[in-house]
Amino acid sequence: MYKHILFATDLTEDTEYLLEKVRAMRNLTNAKLSLVHVVEPLPGYSYAYLGIEDIEGQLLTEARQSIEKFGDKLGIDKSNVFVEIGPTKTKILKVAEDTGTDLIICGSHGRHGLSLLLGSTANAILHGAKCDVLTVRLPEGA
Amino acid sequence: MYKHILFATDLTEDTEYLLEKVRAMRNLTNAKLSLVHVVEPLPGYSYAYLGIEDIEGQLLTEARQSIEKFGDKLGIDKSNVFVEIGPTKTKILKVAEDTGTDLIICGSHGRHGLSLLLGSTANAILHGAKCDVLTVRLPEGA
Description:
The structure is a homodimer. Chain A is of the alpha/beta class. Chain A has helices spanning 14-29, 55-73, 88-98, 115-128; strands at 4-8, 32-39, 81-85, 103-108, 132-137. In chain A, helix 2 links the parallel strand 2 and strand 3 (81-85).
């Protein structure tokens, strides 16, 4: 049914819950699996006055370390793990197209709290995607 | 992975494309399958001056005939085919909860043309659902 699944993760703890769903869907479909996380760019001024240099570089490095742990748990080769910097929606959809993804999986909190962020990402993906999207409802309190 | 799938259909021709996806997902998961279509209520004035009586009743009857055809194609018992009248989002989510649905499948056109309607329904379902939602991207021009 699906040949290439792209799991868009925000690298929060909820990811553990999502990993189970992603694993189950991969097992059902025997699809290839890739992972993507997007670091949103910071406003265009320098943090050097705080003594922090290249904060985006640090964020990218940390994101790559985190996502590779998830990749290991899913047995995914590093070449199929993507960390991008830019607007979340645009970057996820670009990775989806570049990799020939036919199903994007992402989490959604509904409308409270952090959900405003996650919900809007899920929503943006849903509206822009050229492929199917599975939105996994995260448990309350997660 | 899923025990009960609810296919929310708008009963357009696209449904044929969606039926294939729904069938594939049911086969993969061995889930129970239900169907729902919602007729939006008409504005609260009478069409009697046009010689049309009980137009909502007619819409419901026609919707039930159409959806039962889809139900037959999927081998679904009539007791698992729902036609409701009311706000689309509320009614779909209520049927989902009443039936213990853990995956809602719906179509999405993206953002052009008819999509404004379909997109907003998919969107509303996505934000209100207490279960996972699979949004199937309909082919361009469908």
